[in-house]
Amino acid sequence: MPKDIRKIVEEGYEKGDYAGKFRISSTPNEMERYFLDRLVKEVSQQGRVLDFGCGIGIPFDNYLIEKGLDVTGIDISQKHIEQAKKNVPQAKFVKGDFSKYDFAAGDFDAIISFYAIFHIPREEHQDLFSKMHTLLKESGVILITLGTSGSEYGEEQDWCGAPMAWSTYEPEEYKKIITNAGFKIVEEKYEGQSGDEEFHYWVIAKK
Prior knowledge:
By secondary structure, this protein is an alpha/beta fold. Helix content is 32%, strand content 30%.
């Protein structure tokens, strides 16, 4: 990895206005709601959900709280954690690196991660999915968004007003990583089209 991607990401979210560009709406869009509802059906009432890269808590964590689930979010940005606590006071939020933070094994019914996994070096992604598998109860579920292009490292100098960095595999490689970690893919879908500013790979998978 050419640079300290975590430092760039943390500083980028602290200095930039991610929420002002991407989190204006407090409710999920149609596609997001579809996948969240699929997750809710797989999780028991008051089930425990862990959000890797929770951002400011809306719309995803708030939506799951309204569905009766118990949500814990973790994010590398202190600014986002403070906003999340105000936006979703019913949830629990901690500041930290989700790839390194210690949670109890088998303690969660579901793990979600939206637009966050590609902010850690891609060579760590296999270990991250294995960690998710360990943290979940039997028949636990993950709902995640991933990158769509194979790039060890990419950086943009002015993303929401600050530098930002990414590290991704192509979807076919992610399918192998997810299944190698012990998950069975339930559904997958692309968000956007190739060439769009926002083009992501959505996956829901079960332990």
